[in-house]
Amino acid sequence: MGYDIERFVGYVNEGLLCSICRDVLEDPLQAPCEHAFCTACIHGWLVHHGNCPEDRQVIDVSLLRPLYRYMKNDLNRLQLHCRNREYGCEMVCSLESIDRHERECEYSQIPCSNAGCTVQIERRNLDGHLAVCEYRSRECPNGCGYTILSAEDTQHNCVAELRTELELLRSEMICRVEEAKHEMESRLDSQRRHMVQKESILQNEIEELKSQMSRMMSDVRSLMAAERQHRQELEQAELEKREL
Asked: Where is the RING-type domain (predicted)?
C-alpha cells in the first residue's frame, strides 16, 4: 500500500500515484510499459494476474525495475504531514525524510517496555508512565532485595525469598567449588603425565649414557691390552738386540 494522498501538501502529479492502490508510491517499481506501482501492490497483483493492471500488457516480476531517477527525485521532494498528526504532531517534511522523522517522533504510539503491561503511550510520555506503571520492576521496600515485577509481588514472603536466595547462592557456591576441584584435578593429572613422560625420557637418556660408558670402558681395556702387547714386543726386541 502507498502513502495516503490526503497526507500530502499541495499538488501530487498523477504519475507518482500507484496504478493499483491509487495512493502515492511507496517503495516504487516500474513495468516496461512505464506504469509505476508500490512494491507490495504489484507483487500481490502478480500472484493472481500476469499482466499490467493499467494496459493489460504481459509482465513478470523479473521485468520490474526501479523508478526512473527524475521520477524518484520528484517523489522524494513531495511534502507530507507526519502520520501522528491526529495525536498533535505538526511536522511537515519531505517524503525522503519522513521515515526517519516518524521513527523518532515524540507523538508516536509505542508499547510500554514493562513485561505484562499492554498500555500504548506516546513516546514523549513514556518516562512518566514507566515511573508509575504497576508492572515496573523495583526492589522490595522491606529490604530483602527481591525484585517486584507486578502488583501481586508486593505481598511476597520476604523470609521465603531470602531462603530461596540463600539456597541459590549455596547451589552456586557448590557448583563453583566442584568446578574448581575438577580444574585442579585436571591440572594435577596433566602435571603427573608430564612428569611421568619426563622421567621416561631421563631414564632412556641414563640407559644410553650407561651403554656409551660401557663401550668406552671396553675400548679402554682394548687399548690397554694393545699397549701391554706393544710393550712386551719392545722388551722382546730389546733382549734380542742385547743378545746380538
From this structure: 18-56
pLDDT means per 10 residues, the chain with 244 residues, are: 92 92 94 93 92 90 91 94 92 93 91 85 88 73 56 58 81 91 90 90 90 89 88 87 82
Which burial class, exposed, middle or buried, applies to 182 when counting CB atoms under 10 A from its CB (0-12, 13-18, 19+)? exposed
Query: Residue 232 has which C-alpha cell?
Result: 712386551
pLDDT at 241: 84
Q: Report the CATH architecture of 5-104.
A: 2-Layer Sandwich (3.30)
Nearest Cα to 25, choosing from 62, 76, 64? 76
> Domains of the chain: which residue ranges?
5-104, 109-148
Q: Rounded to whole angstroms, how far apart are CA atoms 146 and 150? A: 12
Chain center to CA of 36: 39
